[in-house]
């Protein structure tokens, strides 16, 4: 099974992340997400294919399960976070990136990204480093105790997306401008 959906989802999750607080240090620079707005143009992250048919089916099923017949958007940040957490948890579970006890599966995550970037061998090390770094950071600890969906899939996705930019190989750091360098510096410090 070719699973390229995670890299696709990262772009969407980065957009979400840039509009949300994710609990970084209280430094003014760390709170100012405008520094990170440029990241999308700074690193040429491989994205060969989008979703497989199986992954599309999982996404559709999760959308129906999580969002249901909802006619209105969430009104609070808490409601929005719950939907994101549950959507990611459903998707990760449906694509076997969680263990049977709903924990992030390091081996499956690394294997997933290895397949996704098989034509980009210089990404193997940065991806493995990003997965391990986010799991070592224990992103699950960022899930609120009263959360409905507690696997940490959403928090992992946020962490992983940012780490890809932080660990971007030099040959793919495509824009050598001050904005990109500043964004990377903020990521390193926060």
Protein architecture, described:
This protein is an all-alpha fold and 190 residues long. It has one domain: Orthogonal Bundle (Recoverin, domain 1), CATH 1.10.238. Helix content is 55%, strand content 0%. α1 (5-18) packs across α8. The model is unreliable at 1-26 (pLDDT under 50).
Gist?
With 190 residues, the protein is mainly α. It contains 9 helices and no strands. The chain has a single domain (4-188), classed as Recoverin, domain 1, CATH 1.10.238.
Q: Characteristics of this structure?
A:
190 residues, mainly alpha, Recoverin, domain 1, 55% helix, 0% strand, disordered N terminus, secreted, signal
**What's the helical proportion of residues?**
55-70%
Distance between the termini: 36 Å
Assign the CATH class.
Mainly Alpha
CATH topology: Recoverin, domain 1
CATH architecture: Orthogonal Bundle
Q: Largest sheet, described in full?
A: none
Poorly predicted parts: 1-26
Strand content: under 5%
Radius of gyration over C-alpha positions, nearest whole angstrom? 16 Å
Overall structural domain count: 1
Care to count the β-strands? 0
Shape: globular
Task: Indicate the structural class.
Answer: mainly alpha
Number of helices: 9
Order of helices and strands: HHHHHHHHH
Mean pLDDT: 80
Signal peptide: 1-23
Subcellular location: Secreted
Keywords: Secreted, Signal
Protein name: Odorant-binding protein 13
